[in-house]
Amino acid sequence: MRTTFLPFSKPSISEAEIEAVAEVLRSGWITTGPKAAEFEEAFKAYCNAEGAVALCSGTAGMHLLLAAMGIGPGDEVITPSMTWVSTVNLITLAGATPVFADIERETLLVSAETVEPLITERTRLIIPVHFAGAAVDMDPLRQLSSAKNIPLVEDAAHAVGTQYRGERIGRRGTAIFSFHPIKNMTCGEGGMFCSDDPGLIEHIRRLKFHGLAKDAYDRNTQGRSPQAEVQEPGFKYNLTDMAAVLALGQLRRLDEFNRKRALLAHRYRELLANIDEIMPLAVPSYPMRHAWHLFVVRLDTKRVGMDRETFMAELKKRNIGTGIHFKAVHRQKYYHETLQLPEGALPNTEWNSDRIFSLPLFPDMTLNDVDEVVAAIKEVIA
């Protein structure tokens, strides 16, 4: 058994990145400034995106999007229930109604087939979620979006570095990324809003900082113009230079991070292939490159004779950390009580919600760590 605890996730921060943050602290300009502007340009180049706005979180990006679109009471937004609650919270707080699409049982991804029957005259937006580093099959959804004239925005919080049909997520349409500490790259807290709609990019840029016509840091004036005008009420969602300089270092190492994640995930899949009680997610068959944000498995509780929570507790006793990603949103207390969806309304979502948990996966892990995780799983099953 392991003698030290293996967390399910841990950020990889280099000494060079620590020093870069220290240099920003010494510079005297620690809020949104030249490093935030540099990060936007670097991320835009990485994704080959047409526009990018750095934000304090991915959740902020979703809030700004809903505000920019004027989504509110009477509107419906289609998204999966198998996701983190932040998007659904924001839809609800805007006064709109979340409408949940079921997922494919083996990938946890929505599809055009699960979304289309939910579209009504009140549908204002579709938000597919790229899950655990795998890409949703976007072409059919884009065709549906175009045919119905309903905007499509990708929740790419799990998809930094993910590719779909040869293009990185963020290259086309509108996508919102997260840089929370468990994500493939981090800056503590942060997000990026990417879009090929110049008008939307400018609107988000304005809304993220009080509705001013200029950023706190303007690239031309090297500061904020004293004549900057409030064009509409806005928010305070800018990314600081302290965070942005860390994100720049992480972005330079992102492809290497993802290569390490893929190597670890391949080892997991090899070692778990003959353990019937543990069912990893399937990798989609259409052309895509997985970023392996999470390694999610499902537990056959009948075979092992214990529930998921007990199984996870037994792994913790053996110094193996795990997580749940996620309990379905419609089963969270507030949404269960307010939406009152009947049991079985989302069969694939509910089946997975009862069984999923995430095994340790982060770049500084070793193949031996994976071996020890699987050994602990076998021990608990036995």
TrEMBL record:
Which InterPro entries does the annotation name? Answer: DegT/StrS_aminotransferase, PyrdxlP-dep_Trfase, PyrdxlP-dep_Trfase_major, PyrdxlP-dep_Trfase_small
Claim: Transferase is one of the keywords in the record = yes
Q: Which GO terms describe its molecular function?
A: pyridoxal phosphate binding; UDP-4-amino-4-deoxy-L-arabinose aminotransferase
An example of a Gene Ontology BP annotation on this entry? polysaccharide biosynthetic process
Organism of origin is Desulfoglaeba alkanexedens ALDC
Any keyword Transport? no
The organism's place on the tree of life at top rank: Bacteria
Catalytic activity, EC: 2.6.1.87
Residues where N6-(pyridoxal phosphate)lysine occurs?
183
Return the protein name: UDP-4-amino-4-deoxy-L-arabinose aminotransferase
Read off the CDD domains from this record: AHBA_syn (cd00616)
Entries under Pfam families matching the protein: DegT_DnrJ_EryC1
